[in-house]
Amino acid sequence: MELVERYLRVVVSHFPKQQQQATAEKLLSEIETKIQADHSGLNETDKVKKVLENLGDPKKLAVDYGAPQRYLIGPKYFDAYLLVLKIVTLAIILGLTIANLLAVLISSDPVWEVIPSYLGGIFQAVIQGAAWVTGIFALLEYRQVDFGAEKPWQISELPAVAHKKLRISRIESIIAIILSMIFFSFLYFAPQITFVMNALNSETVTVIQLFNQPVFETTKWLLLISFIFALLQESLKVIWGQWTHKNVVINALVLLASTVFVLVFINLPDVWNPEIGQAIVQYTDFDATLLPRGLTLFIGIITVLEIATSFYKVYRYREKNEYLD
User: Fold this and answer.
1) Does one domain contain both 165 and 307?
2) Where are the alpha helices (H) located in the chain, listed in sequence order?
3) CA–CA separation, 248 vs 80, rounded Å?
4) 247-254 contacts: CB < 8 A, separation 24 or more?
5) Percent of the chain predicted with pLDDT > 70
6) Distance CA 137, CA 191 (A)
7) Within a domain: residue 322?
8) Residue 209 gets which letter from DSSP?
9) Are 38 and 47 in contact (CB under 8 A)?
10) Do 110 and 181 reside in the same domain of the chain?
C-alpha cells in the first residue's frame, strides 16, 4: 500500500493540520472500497494503480474534498479590492496633475520639459499605489482564511439589519481615500511643494519650500507608512459597511498607528524648512516653534474624536432594536 500512502500524503498536504487525519481516513476508506470492488482479475498492485489513476491528480482531488483554496486576493475581497484600486489610481493621477500644474505656474521651465517627468512620475506612482493596495488586500485575505473545518450555514448567522447610525457610508470612505491620496501624492511624489506668503505691506511674494529636502527624503517613509494605515482603515470601512464592537476596535488601532507615524514625522526637529519659521515670524505674531505642537494637538484631537464617535455609535445603538425606517 505504499502507493496509497504516497497518494494520501499529497492530498492531505493541502489541508490544515487539524483536518489531515480525518481527510486521510475518509479517503483511505474510499480507496480500499474501490480496490475491493475491482473484480477485473488484476493483481493487487495493478488494482491500486488503476484506482489511483481513476481518482486523478491528488492536488485536484484535494480541492474536491474541500481543501482551502489559496488566493492572493480571493472572491471575498476582490470587488472591494478593484474599487479601492480604481479610486487610488484616480486620486494619484489627480494629485500629481495638480502638483505639476502648480510647479509649472511657479517655474520658468517650458511646459514641454515638464511633460516627460510628469508622465514618468504618474507611471511610478500608479505602480507603487497598486502595490500598496494589493499588499493590503493580500494581508486581509491571509488573515481572514478560515483554517477550521467548514460548518453548515445556519439561519441564525444572518446579520441583523443595522441601525442607520451604524451604517458606514461608502461614499464618505471613497471621498476620504481620494482626498488622502491627493494630499499624499503632493507630499510624497512632489516634495517640491511650496509655501507661498504674500507680504502684507508690499507687492513682494516669497516662495519657500515647506520641508528641508535632504531630511525629508530620508524620513518620508514615515508618511508612507502612515498613509498605508490610513488606506487600510478606509478600505476596511468599505468592506465592513457597518460598525460592530470588533470593527471599532480594529478601526481605532489602525487609526492610532497611522496617527503615530504622521506625528513622529511632524515633530522631527529638522524636517521643516527653517525659512518657513522666519517668514511666519516676519509677517505674523505667531511663534513658529509652536507649529509642530499645534499640528500635533489638532491631529490628536481629530483622532480622539473620530475614535470616540465610532465607539459611541456602537455602544449607543448596537444592542437596541432600532432598525432602518
Assistant:
1) yes
2) 2-12, 17-36, 44-55, 58-64, 75-106, 111-144, 170-184, 213-219, 221-240, 245-266, 274-283, 291-317
3) 19
4) 247/314, 248/307, 248/310, 248/311, 248/313, 248/314, 251/307, 251/310, 252/307, 252/310, 252/311, 254/229
5) 79
6) 28
7) no
8) E
9) yes
10) yes
Three state DSSP letters for 111-132? HHHHHHHHHHHHHHHHHHHHHH
Cα→Cα distances 24→14, 27, 29, 59, 134, Å: 11, 5, 8, 14, 35
Question: What residues form DSSP beta bridges with 167?
Answer: 242
CB distance 189 to 220 below 8 Å: no
**pLDDT above 90: percentage of residues in the chain:** 12
Nearest in space to 244 (alpha carbons), one of 232, 236, 234: 236
- Residue 215 counted as domain residue: yes
Same domain, 26 and 95: no
Q: Residues 48-59: pLDDT tens digits?
A: 888 888 888 888
Q: Check whether residue 126 and residue 199 sit in a common domain.
A: yes
In total, the chain counts a number of residues equal to 325
Environment class of residue 129 by beta-carbon count within 10 Å: exposed (0-12), middle (13-18) or buried (19+)?
buried
Among 41-55, 97-111, 183-197, 246-260, name the one with the lowest average pLDDT: 183-197
10 Å Cβ neighbour count for 323? 12
Residue 244 has pLDDT above 70, yes or no: yes
Contacts of 163 (CB under 8 A, 6+ apart): 317, 318, 320, 322, 323, 324
166 within domain boundaries: yes
For residue 263, which amino acid is it? L
CA distance 184 to 133: 14
